[in-house]
Amino acid sequence: MLCADLLQILPTVACGLKAPNMQSFRFSLRFILPLALVVGLFAYAVMPVVNDMTVRWFVRDLEARSQMLASALQQPLLEYVADKNQKKIRQLFDRSVQEGGLYALGFCSPSGQLLYRSSTYPVVLGCRAGGAGSETQRSLVDLPDGRVHVTESQVRQGTEVLGQLILVHDMRYIERRTAETQHYLITLFALLAVVISLITVFIAHLSWRGWINAVKGILHLDERSSRSLSAPPEVQPLVGDLRALLHEMRVDRRGEGVSAINWTPEKLRSLLHDELSGDQILVVSNREPYIHTRTPEGIEVRRPASGLVTAVEPVMRACSGTWIAHGAGTADRETVDANDHVAVPPRKPSYTLRRVWLSKEEEQGYYYGFANEGLWPLCHIAHVRPVFRTSDWEQYVAVNQRFADAVIKEAHSEDPVVLVQDYHFALLPRMVREKLPRATIIMFWHIPWPNPESFGICPWREEILEGLLGNTLLGFHTPFHCKNFLETVDRYLEARIEHEASTISYGGELTEVEPYPISIAWPDEFPRSVPDCRADVRRELGLSDKHLLALGVDRLDYTKGIIERIQAVERVLELYPSLIGHFSLVQIAAPSRSSLDEYQNLESRVRALALRINKRFSNGSYEPIILKIEHYDSEDVNRYYRGADVCMVTSLHDGMNLVAKEFVAARDDERGVLILSQFTGAARELHEALIINPYHIEQGAEALHRALTMPEGEQRERMRSMRILVRDFNVYRWAGRMLIDAARLRRRERVTARIHSQSRKALRRVV
Ligand code: F6P
């Protein structure tokens, strides 16, 4: 079945397998027609040259023969002309005509009078040049009966010219010969064309058949096992791709039923009820969904700028449970109960936030150090060197243990469902597994997973991989990241990998690795209309109603390509000066990890670049780069999404990037253009965005110009199609798919456990 599916997306293969006759016919035509055309053209161009050459060869031959004959006739002719023996001359001429293959012979006096001639001599020909002129003259003469070749050769007695011997050859014969030659040549070319075509088609069919069989072999074998395949060399480069494709299709197929569901919070809740009824859900992440901060006005609650929180929070609202996270807010301790619990969301509590407290040293080593100076650049490959310090690693291990202990403490049963979030907790799954072997541990890695070579520079790579293999299910954004992870494990651990099932068996435990592209909750409605948002935003920025606006919304992070985005704006103003004064980029950048040098450097560079460009293009109050390095809450960000003409997402590397999806979700007017980096996971889904390579500044500038001048119809078409995708593939589907898979694995584990205990009991009875 899968084969059939795959073959549908490999049209050439499918054609070869499904309709051999029709396909062979078309396939053969594809060879024969161009070949016939080439041969026809060749014949058309070459034939006149061949004709010309053939005629020249024949004429040269005639001339040589005429010359010889003229010489041979000299002597008897002198004799008979001197005797004026007309009879003898006529006999001589007739005989020579017969034996010499001539058409006619004649003899003219020096004054040009035809004195003697063979019986075949055409009278209309008369005498040609007369006695004067050179010794031998040749010409082609058209007579009523056809063309003849005439050679006039002087007959001399010493120095006295007695007359001209005229030798006439029939050219019609030569023309007939030439036509025949041409005919033979054309037939030969045509035959050659057919033979070459047939040989080509035959050979192509043989290789085609071999290729098809090899591909079929790969597909069938791969359906049954994941052992390595011995495909012929020409198919070898395809093996990896085909297997990856097969796996992707299997995953999609598994998700087909899931896709058909209209994913809503209620649906997720009922799914949890049906599939995991009574099971406790625990989420673990570093970043907490609500931060309590002390301000002069009192305690404020804030939602952090985090893709993770954006995605997981709506899921927690839908399914309740407990979320364990680092309490980092200045008023966090004041707002928890004796168990460090606080009910959230503050306005309408639906789940529990359990805060874990970290000392400054712990936070420095685990969060800033190992997670954000080590793993973050390691996984993003954005040209910032990872830094690995033993002291950071020790804190990372200790903090993972602290969070694992919190999970164990919060667990009400021995088999809770634990959802671990991100690279801050690579070791936690194994730590929890050791204490709660029957727990279902699902981890989602929110950032990219690099290739094995890049990951290999981490001094604690084996420990990290072992920690991650404590998971029941490990999710990444894309199949590509899953593939990288499987290859990394293959490279550095003694594990058994089943590519077919995408599972890793390590130390007797099984981890399934799957792609789950993260998304957002589809918004119900917005408080203000798009025209109002447009007007508000421009008024706020002191801009005219017609001012064109591009928007960037990010954490201030070097992976987001903010520098490249600003450079693209500078370039677009250089290339299209008419935009100066009428267009600006509003860059909202939430300060992030600001105690790290790399982040401080980035902030200074962004500020300096914006300042330079603003100076360069400013006239009065005009600023092409409007920089807002501050935290904006989601309501304000939505107002900007709805008020902008273009949204620029130019990450140098990004697991998914939810800003792209949020912008699309915010545009219920079906306007606005999304510029999206090809290095984001989102680019694998939002094909109607203007996809760019952010490192290519010119390309970014051209895309920006195209976006700013895109007709409304095209904007609508692109936006509509992206909105359908984001609406259907929302965050409830993301969580639902993971939880359905978790439930499946749980059922399997329970059945296995029952079988084990039954067989143990049976064994005991026998003993
Ligand atoms: O989106 C990737 C991500 O690492 C999230 O996982 C994380 O929460 C977010 O970036 C913000 O980072 P931080 O929590 O360090 O501010």
Q: What's the average pLDDT?
A: 88
* Approximate helicity band: 40-55%
Shape: elongated
Per the CATH scheme, the topology name of the largest domain is: Rossmann fold
Class of the largest domain in CATH?
Alpha Beta
Q: Sheet with the most strands?
A: 10 strands, mixed
Q: What is the helix tally?
A: 22
Given as residue ranges, the uncertain stretches (5+ residues, pLDDT < 50) are: 1-20, 222-229
Quick overview:
This protein has 767 residues and is α/β, with parallel strands linked by helices. 53% of the residues lie in helices and 17% in strands.
Task: Describe the secondary-structure layout.
Blueprint: H1 2-9, H2 11-18, H3 20-83, H4 86-100, E1 104-108, E2 114-117, E3 136-143, E4 146-157, E5 160-170, H5 171-224, H6 236-260, H7 265-275, E6 281-284, E7 291-295, E8 298-302, H8 307-319, E9 322-326, E10 341-344, E11 351-356, H9 360-380, H10 390-410, E12 417-421, H11 428-435, E13 440-444, H12 452-455, H13 461-468, E14 473-476, H14 479-492, E15 496-498, E16 503-506, E17 509-515, H15 530-541, E18 548-555, H16 562-575, E19 583-590, H17 597-617, E20 625-628, H18 634-643, E21 646-649, H19 658-666, E22 673-677, E23 690-692, H20 697-708, H21 712-728, H22 731-766
Parallel strand pairs: 6-9, 6-12, 9-11, 12-13, 13-14, 14-17, 18-19, 18-21, 19-20, 21-22, 22-23
Antiparallel strand pairs: 1-2, 1-5, 3-4, 4-5, 7-8, 10-11, 15-16, 16-17
Helix pairs in contact: 1-2, 1-6, 3-4, 3-5, 5-6, 7-8, 7-22, 9-10, 10-11, 15-18, 16-17, 16-20
The structure holds 6-O-phosphono-beta-D-fructofuranose.
The site of 6-O-phosphono-beta-D-fructofuranose (F6P) has 11 residues, from helix 8.
